[in-house]
Design brief:
A four-stranded mixed beta sheet has the order 1-2-4-3, with helices on one face. The chain starts with a strand and ends with a helix. β3 and β4 form a beta hairpin. The chain is built from four helices and four strands. α3 packs antiparallel against α4. It has one domain. It has 135 residues and is α/β, with parallel strands linked by helices.
Length: 135
């Protein structure tokens, strides 16, 4: 399974968001390399949303499955003020928390048909990444 990440972020998040996402991405790409999901999805695109309260309404959370390309796309809000005030390890943890929540959001995508086993595999991958990055 392929894993990709990007973000929609306010200047307040600074370079820290890109650094945290890159650390997480590098590990998850490796962990998910040989994973096959029962639902048939072949890629997971995670987009973090880091926006101040007055802008967050313009960036809603999204969960969708692009059936033709077999890509799961999930956009998840990350609390920007908590992120900004955290150290690098805590920032990585916040990204991992959002990834874990994105798996829960995937369960709501009717066209995806994510199995319980698929969800366990993806959550397990996030927890493996957490163990490698936050130790």
């Amino acid at each position: 399974m392929d894993f990709n990440t990007s973000s929609e972020q306010h200047v307040l998040a600074g370079n820290a968001a890109q650094i945290a996402r890159k650390k997480v991405k590098d590990i998850l790409v490796e962990i998910l390399r040989d994973v096959s999901l029962e639902c048939g999805a072949e890629a997971w695109t995670f987009i973090s949303i880091l926006m101040p309260d007055e802008r967050i309404g313009d960036y809603p959370e999204v969960r969708r499955y692009h059936k033709a390309r077999k890509v799961i796309e999930v956009r998840v809000q990350v609390p920007i003020y908590e992120f900004k005030d955290s150290n690098a390890l805590q920032q990585v943890s916040l990204i991992l928390d959002a990834l874990s929540r994105s798996v829960e959001m995937m369960k709501e995508i009717k066209s995806l048909k994510l199995t319980e086993n698929d969800a366990l595999v993806l959550k397990g991958a996030v927890e493996k990444a957490r163990a490698k990055l936050i130790s």
